[in-house]
Structures are given as structure tokens and as C-alpha cells.
Amino acid sequence: MRAAPLLVLAAACGSGAPKPVTRTEYEIELAPAAAATGLDEAVRVVRARLHGVDGARVSTERGRVIVDLPAMQAAARYSLDATLPRRGQLVLAVVDRDDGPMTVIADHLTRDPDASALRIDAATEPRPIGASDGRHRYLVAPDREENLTTDDARARGCWRRDQMVHDGRVTCIVTGREVLSRYLRAVGEADASLRIPDDHEVGFGVIAEQGRRPLWRTYYLDRDDRLTSPAIARAAAGVDDGGHPQVRLALDERGTHELRALTTAAIGEQLAFVVDDQVLSAPTIAAPLTAGRLALSLGDDAGAFEARELAAILRSGPLPAPLREASVSELP
Questions:
Q1: Residue 290 pLDDT > 90
Q2: Which of 60, 258, 295, 302 has the smallest count of CB within 10 Å of its CB?
Q3: Structure confidence by residue, pLDDT tens digits, 147-185
Q4: Rg (alpha carbons) of the chain, rounded to whole number
Q5: Is the pLDDT of residue 39 over 80?
Q6: What backbone phi and psi angles, to 5 degrees, belong to 263?
Q7: Rounded distance, CA 104 to CA 107, Å?
Q8: Residues 216/121/118/298 CA torsion (nearest 10 deg)
Q9: Is the separation of the CB atoms in 170 and 164 below 8 Å?
Q10: What sign has the CA pseudo-torsion 14, 16, 22, 26?
């Protein structure tokens, strides 16, 4: 059975007359020593993600990844623009229950007017069963609008070809994730007692909608207790017992062994599913995961299409680095 196309929501233009072709050139930042092999791997991954899209061609030129696509419906093209450049890297990381530094920062921001101006707040949740302290502290912040130069907008990945430009600036939605990340970096640089230790990092995930804008939260992650880019043998979209979209994963033999070891040592802890540096889910580990099978639930706001996209992206494997759109042109 032929695999379904990754990104096409509706068929490309009907058969008959030749279809116009759109060429998109993507930049990719690779270390000089890995440039050749990295480009080859990027082409392999992009081709896998476009499997089933008739007429798609992927090549390289001047260190860029070149994607030629036939005309397709606007919704399909919009989806492609948003998802094809994603790195698609999966990390499984243990959430550290000993989150003393986050507690210190949470206490600090209640007295910090800068945090109030950015609408950053502190929240609590129950710790996993067995933890000595019953409270777990984390930070939350909603998305916000900011006026940025076009260069800054491109660098942040929020520039679109159809945006209105006023005095060289565009309005971008700056995610709550970026607001939290900038705040944590600023307070850590100003006060060493508010700095995240080198053996940990802060992860970010969306937990709710606030006034139709996503609300982001922090996760205190251990840099050592994790699996980075485990080899995925199978990935398929489905639904959980509550009818919510999910992605079911099966790891290869080595990944299964590593997952068993990781989860055996972390019973009662949360396991964060991190895709492209965003925590999508963080369920509690009730028992060792010995069969190499995982289910990533996407929550109430996700749809079946998002689950199919994510399954196909993870199935294709990660890009060596994210792609950044450099130019778009119509071929004669």
C-alpha cells in the first residue's frame, strides 16, 4: 500500500495541461566538515517527507536545498511551507522533580515588575507520587505581539511573504516560549543565583489557550537522563482512549533497549516528549517501557491532520539542521 503524502491536503491541479512549478530554495546551516554529508541527508529526509507528491523534485545547489513543486491548492501549500523545514528531532527527557532553581526564579518574578509587564507568572502543580515536596513550580506566559524589523522577523522565523511592511517593520507574534526564554536568560545573566545549572535546561510547551493565544509553560529537564533522536521503526497517527489525536511510535532494537533503561531508572517521574525543542506531552512513567512502544498524545487543540503530519515527519527522521526559506520563484 502506498504511503499517503505528508503535506498535501488536497490533490494538486488536475491532469492535462502542464502544471506550473514553484521553486523554493532553503538555506541550511551545517558545520564545514559535515556540509556534504549533511546536504545529502537533508535531501533524503525532504524526499521522504514528500513521498507520494507527484512531480516533486529535490536537489542541491550552492549549498542550498532546492524543492520544485507543481501547483497545488493554497491550503496544501501553506501546510508545506509551515512543516517541510521542521527539523523533526525527537528527544525523550526526564523532568527533574528536584527543581530548586525554578522555585527560586518563581519566587523572584513575583517581585519583578519586568515579569509583570511581560505577563509572566508562576504556577504550581502536584509532584509525582513519591516526591518529598508536594509542590512543583513552573513559569507561564502567553504569546504577544511585537513590531520587528524584517531582518529580525526572518531570523525569528515569523516573516511571511504576504505580510504588510510599515517603515521596514512587521508585526510578529512572539511566542510565550520566547518570552520565557529571554526572561530566564536575562535574570540568569543579572544574578547567578537565578541561573539554570549547566547540567539542566528548561523545556517549553503549550498547555492552554488564553484569550485565543497559546499559554506556554516551563519544564525543568535533566540534560543527562534522555534519549536524543532514537531511531523510529514505525510511526502512525491514531486516537487515545479519550478520542484525542496521538502518534504511536515503535523504536528499533537499540532504541528499545535505551528506553527500557531510561524508564526503569525513572519510575514515578515525568517523561517529556520534546519535538523540535517543544514539549508536546509529559506523562508520568508508571512502569518501565520494555517493548519500545510509545504513544504521544497531542491534546484537545490538535486535529487528526496534525497527528498525521507529525507521524510522517518523525517517520522520515530528523533533518541535520532546520531549513530556512531563502527564495521562492516560478519556473518557466
A1: yes
A2: 295
A3: 888 788 877 767 776 777 877 788 888 889 999 999 999
A4: 21
A5: yes
A6: -75, -25
A7: 5
A8: 10
A9: yes
A10: positive
State the amino acid at position 298 in one-letter form: L
Q: Which long-range contacts (CB under 8 A, 24 or more apart) does 37-43 make?
A: 38/320, 38/321, 39/63, 39/65, 41/319, 41/320, 42/319, 42/320, 42/321, 42/323
Number of helices followed by number of strands (H, E) in the chain: 8, 16
Q: At residue 42, what is the residue type?
A: A
* The predicted structure's pLDDT at residue 134: 56
pTM, entire model: 0.82
Q: Where are the beta strands (DSSP E) in 113-269?
A: 121-126, 135-142, 144-149, 169-174, 200-210, 213-228, 232-239, 245-251
**Strand 57-61, strand 213-228: pairing:** unpaired
Q: Is 266:258 a contact under the CB 8 Å cutoff?
A: no
Residue 156 C-beta-side C-alpha neighbours within 13 Å: 20
Residue-wise pLDDT tens digits, 111-129? 999 999 999 999 988 765 5
Fold category of 91-316 in CATH: Gyrase A; domain 2 (3.30.1360)
Give 104-154 as a DSSP string. HHHHHHTT-HHHHHTT-EEEEEEPPTT-SSSEEEEEEEE-EEEEEEHHHHH
Best CATH choice for the domain 21-86+320-331 from the list 3.40.1190.20, 3.30.70.3400, 3.30.750.200, 3.40.30.10 = 3.30.70.3400
The SS3 assignment for 243 reads coil
In the predicted model, what is the mean pLDDT of residues 7-27? 63
Every domain of the chain and the residues it spans: 21-86+320-331, 91-316
Of all residues in the chain, the percent with pLDDT exceeding 70 is 89
For residue 287, the SS3 value is: coil
CB 313 within 8 A of CB 85: no
- Residue whose cell numbers read 507574534: 173
CB atoms within 10 A of CB 58: 19
